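call fold(seq) -> tokens
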Amino acid sequence: MRSLKYGIPIALFALLSVFLLVGLWKDPREIPSPLIGKPAPAFSLPELRAPDRAWSPKEMAGQVWLLNVFASWCVPCLVEHPVLMQMSREKLLPIVGFNYKDEPGAATGWLAKHGDPYVAIVADRTGSVAFDYGVYGVPETFLVDRTGTIRFKHVGPLTPEVVQGKLLPLVRELSR
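ret:
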């Protein structure tokens, strides 16, 4: 009876320790998304540059494209911005900006100052559509294939290493 009294807590502690140790070797930026392999949530949001016009992911049908969630108040967005500008200059794939919980004037001023790598920019001032995408912070980036299916999600600033090592190989594969 005594071994049972101490055996169960020790076994539970050992099991919990294994889970914690496994977590130490995982990359915290690679947060699994339940949307990977599923259709990107549909939406229609006003364009940042022309608020009277709505934009929808349907406009990217048949293309492999990137949805980049950013905001003018986001410091890590400024860190990733040169990477997006380089991708835009190299015309690697269309990048759609998703302005998250931001004032339109602040966002357009930020883009005027730092450059605009986007083929289109939508404004989600309330964050309601971002919620559908599982966004909980900025920046976040989604790769969408020709059929409108999300194939990759990156949380945090894109780096040249992520672009070269993960994103571009997947873009090449999806573009075949």
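The chain has a mean pLDDT of 91.
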